[in-house]
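Blinded run. Sample ID left blank on purpose so nobody reads anything into the name before looking at the predicted structure. Input follows.
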Amino acid sequence: KLFFTDYGNAAKVERCDMDGMNRTWIVDSKVEQPTALALDLVNKYVYWVDIYLDSVEVVDYQGRKRHTIIKGRQIRHLCGLAVFESYLYTVNSDNHSILRINRYNSSDVQSLARHDNAREIHVYQKRTQTTVRSHACEVDPYGMPGGCSHICLLSSNYKARTCRCRTGFILGTDGRSCK
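Blinded prediction complete.
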């Protein structure tokens, strides 16, 4: 799945398959400007920052179990969000400080460091990615991912795929080659 935020005409947090199909709103009320987003892949939770409401909130992958992690002035101007173990990590764009927020106890907020022009944060940890033995976009014997001549996108699950073409090309009737 692909998770993303949108605060155009109607602010929302959404998810869809990697090929863009099955687009679903998981949050579409009491949200104004959702920006940074992070996933808890183990427990299947979506965290996001709303910069207008000065809040960090969470829902499960289906949009249920919504609650506010932290809200108020102390978390103004947040950008970037990462989750690891019991903490959320984010960047304050005003003073470029990196904050650590306990996602189970919002009174535990610490400023860890300052980095000029910091705007994004990521946690790289092998345990955060599940291992998939095989998937539909693996390179075939001819060197084409998923048998697609240009772009292979996972579909509704890791065993299904959709082929797409680069700009200026159209997908052939075989659903794999681009012309």
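Unblinding after everyone has recorded impressions. DSSP finds no helices and 13 strands in the chain.
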